Amino acid sequence: MDNRPIGIFDSGLGGLTALRALRQLLPEEDIIYFADAGRVPYGGRSREQIRRMAVQDLDFVSGFGVKAVLVACGTISSNAPDLLQSYAVPAFGVLTPGVEAMACVPGEAPLGVIATEASIRSGAFEKALRAACPGREILALPCPNFVPLIESGHTEAEDPLLRWAVENCLAPLKERGAAAVLLGCTHYGIIASAIRAYLGAEVALYGAADCGAAALRDYLRHNGLTGGQGRERYYTSGSGEDFARKAALFLGREIDGVEEVPVMEV
Fold it and tell me: CATH number of 6-93+210-260: 2.60.120.560, 3.40.50.1860, 3.90.1150.10, 3.40.309.10?
């Protein structure tokens, strides 16, 4: 048994999809969550900036004596996998677990992956999917409007702005008859209902956050590192009040006080 907490970080609300999944899988774990809302979104930044931010975020959450870190950010997972692999504390991204789940999709219809501009520009998701699913057509689409809409509260499937963004971005997936879509940005799990409403219930959606949480659970159990009291501590580089309000709406429960921390210089 290991009662040290688990660290989770993301640029904002998206990582809560990973926290929710991990809480369902390991309800007894203590969790440190960091929302780098003062620098959201990550997707439009350069690769060099993203890699510097990855180290800063890792250093921040590991400073709480965590036993592992779930990097609940597809942009960092796709642009800095080497930094995660070499970090002093076990750090799990969401790219590899998500791709491994997609490799099990039967048939020959195309597979899609949607993520931030930086994630798609890196080519990491597309390359990994092509290697895992040889012979399948892979459609990799950036969706730059999704994160700003989610962070500003446009999350309901009936929301006209969100519906327009979904239709505008995902039309190629619908036209090509994709069999499954990997939500390569953890924010996108928050609007899964809007994505499903447009693509149709027959298209399987795989959340990178859910897959990453399952991979971390397997690691902790295999190594005898589970344990805790189910406590949560939240930190943000943005508005604590704003984050707490939005987080409560998404999680369906109130969260304890959120501590604000200074925005780190890139």
Answer: 3.40.50.1860
Per the CB < 8 A criterion, the answer to whether 130 and 138 are in contact is: yes
Q: What's the length of the chain?
A: 266
Residues annotated as catalytic (active site), given as ranges: 73, 185
pLDDT in tens, 31-43: 999 999 999 999 9
Q: Where are the beta strands (DSSP E) in the chain?
A: 6-10, 31-35, 68-71, 91-92, 111-115, 138-142, 180-183, 204-207, 232-236, 258-260
Summary mean pLDDT of the chain: 97
> Whole-angstrom distance between the N-terminal and C-terminal Cα of the chain?
37
Rounded to two decimals, the pTM is 0.95
The CA radius of gyration of the chain, in Å to the nearest whole number, is 17
- E strand or H helix at 86: helix 81-86
